[in-house]
Every structure is written in structure tokens, then in C-alpha cells.
Design goal:
- By secondary structure, the chain is an alpha+beta fold.
- The strands form two sheets. Strands 4, 5, 6, 7, 8, 9 and 10 form a seven-stranded mixed beta sheet that branches. It has a three-stranded antiparallel beta sheet with strand order 1-2-3, with no helix packed on it.
- A hairpin with a 5-residue loop joins strand 2 and strand 3.
- It starts with 31 loop residues before the first strand and ends with a helix.
- 27% of the residues are buried.
Length: 187
């Protein structure tokens, strides 16, 4: 089976995610194969599923502008992203979103509404993860917006950008672009 980096794959089922395993994590044998959905060791029968990770993002509207963080970390450091992040074990998407907002902005919305979900790919330390990104919407008044305080480990700054002037090419993730397009159809 020819190995193909997931970033070049058209079908997530057909690619070995970044050649993650060359040896079986259970027995150490070299006979681990990617089936398109999981790895299986021909020697001991060990199976490992590299399942989709869940993430949550927030489209925060204040007076016709959307809040973006300028990413301080890879992947896509320096690009624009929405507040949000990965869902931790034991959390719902809503809980994760509120936690991430508190961590990244020093604030969390009181009322969020679900918008849509989109698949995405996220590379971290040379491993490509398929994600299901769930997007939510909230509104923020001008007084509250002035109190937001970005975490410098997460963002080099915050930027309010009018929905009619979104810099599509500077947005870090395709799923975010899809969510913003979906949101624009609603307003």
C-alpha cells in the first residue's frame, strides 16, 4: 500500500495519517498496516482507531464586526482564528467553547447558539488530525468588548473585522471560512 500524506489525500479513508505508526505500539512488530480507518498489526492483532477530534469555535458579533484572534502558535501562526479549541474528554462542545473563551479572552458568553459543523484537518507536530469543528454564535455589546483580554500564549492580539470586509485568505482554517459563509447567509 502506497503511503500518502493526509494533506494530499482526497479521501480521509485512503490515507495513512502522516505515517503515524511504523511499528506496532503493542508488540513492537513491523507489520502494522493502515486500513483506511484504523491500524492493524498482522502479528498480534492490535487495532488502533485514529478517530475524528471535536473542536468548537465562536463567531462573536459586535455591531456588525466579528472577533478574531491572531494565532500565536502553530499551526498557522499569525493567521486569524475564531475563539475556541478542542473538546477535552468529559466535556460537551458547549462546555469546551466556554472554557476556551475564558482561557483565550478572559470572558465567556452567557448565551450561545449553534450554527453548524464542518470537517477540518489540523496538523500538530507532524501529525494530521481530522476534526469535526462545531461553530456557535454569540453577540457582544461594545462595553463588554472593551474588557476582553487575550492570552498572549494563545493570541498575539484581537481584531474586530466587519463581516463585509473579511480577509478570507488570512483565516487559518477552511472550516472557519465555511462557518463564516454559513453565518453570512443568516444575517
Amino acid at each position: 500500500m502506497e503511503k500518502q500524506p493526509i494533506s494530499e489525500a482526497r479521501d480521509p479513508q485512503s490515507a495513512n495519517p502522516a505515517g503515524l505508526f511504523r511499528f506496532c505500539p503493542s508488540c513492537g512488530g513491523p507489520g502494522i498496516d493502515w486500513s483506511g480507518r484504523f491500524w492493524r498489526c498482522g502479528g498480534c492483532g492490535f487495532e488502533y482507531f485514529h478517530n475524528v477530534a471535536a473542536a468548537a469555535g465562536l463567531i462573536l458579533n459586535s455591531g456588525g464586526s466579528c472577533l478574531f484572534l491572531r494565532r500565536a502558535k502553530e499551526p498557522r501562526r499569525g493567521c486569524l482564528a475564531l475563539p475556541g479549541g478542542f473538546v477535552d474528554p468529559g466535556e460537551s462542545a458547549e462546555q469546551a467553547l466556554l472554557r476556551e473563551c475564558r482561557e483565550e479572552l478572559g470572558w465567556a458568553p452567557k448565551d450561545i447558539r449553534f450554527l453548524a459543523s464542518f470537517p477540518n484537518r489540523y496538523e500538530f507536530q507532524k501529525v494530521e488530525y481530522w476534526t469535526c469543528d462545531l461553530f456557535f454564535i454569540a453577540d457582544l455589546g461594545k462595553k463588554e468588548a472593551a474588557r476582553l483580554s487575550p492570552d498572549p500564549d494563545e493570541a498575539t492580539g484581537l481584531e474586530w473585522i466587519e463581516f463585509g470586509s473579511l480577509p478570507w485568505e488570512s483565516i487559518a482554517f477552511e472550516s472557519t471560512r465555511q462557518a463564516l459563509r454559513q453565518y453570512l447567509l443568516r444575517i
